[in-house]
Amino acid sequence: MGKRLKRLVARLRLYWLAARLYETWQLLARPHNHGALVAIWHQGRLLLVQASYRHGLGLPGGGLERRETAQQAAVRELTEELGLRVSQEELVDPWQITETSARGKNSVTIFTLRAAREPVIHLDGLELVAGHWLTTQEALGRPLVSHVRTYLIERGLKK
Questions:
Q1: Of 50, 55, 82, 116, which is the most buried if we count CB atoms within 10 A?
Q2: Which pLDDT tens digit goes with each residue over 45-96?
Q3: Which long-range contacts (CB under 8 A, 24 or more apart) does 131-138 make?
């Protein structure tokens, strides 16, 4: 979501409405979305976040803006969503998945961030409403966004 629109939605506390409108648009347009997410690992635990507009836990991140690389988008999204500043060089081991659903195609690149100390995060309480540090096994026992579940099965067991 663009910065200006995001600020307006936040000011009016309309994330639920914006999410429903976006879902309806996706069902009609069936776009191919591109996103960048970050798996933040600390001492064998992964930070999973709960978005106000989605069922299941996911990873921090979001869509790529025009002329933005996945790595640039991941850095920007961490700052916007968690108040966490990282360099592109800290984001390693990119893993990609493309899923097709009634809403179109969703291509996601998941980067790994290995944190020596547990990062201080600041959830806005509007877009992201909760954060949980979970082991891979604990996470797999929870409702997860499908690409996160696939990532954990394929990659998370090695962390």
A1: 82
A2: 999 999 988 889 999 999 999 999 999 999 999 999 999 999 999 999 999 9
A3: 131/47, 131/48, 131/49, 131/50, 131/82, 132/47, 132/48, 132/49, 132/50, 132/57, 133/42, 133/45, 133/46, 133/47, 134/45, 134/46, 134/48, 135/44, 135/45, 135/46, 136/46
Confidence tier at 99 by pLDDT (50, 70, 90)? confident
Which amino acid is located at 57 in the chain? L
Q: Give the chain's domains with CATH numbers.
A: 3-158 (3.90.79.10)
CA gap 115, 99 in Å, rounded: 28
CA-based diameter of the chain, in Å?
44
Beta bridge partners of 105: 32, 100
Percent of the chain with pLDDT over 70: 75
This prediction has a pTM of 0.80
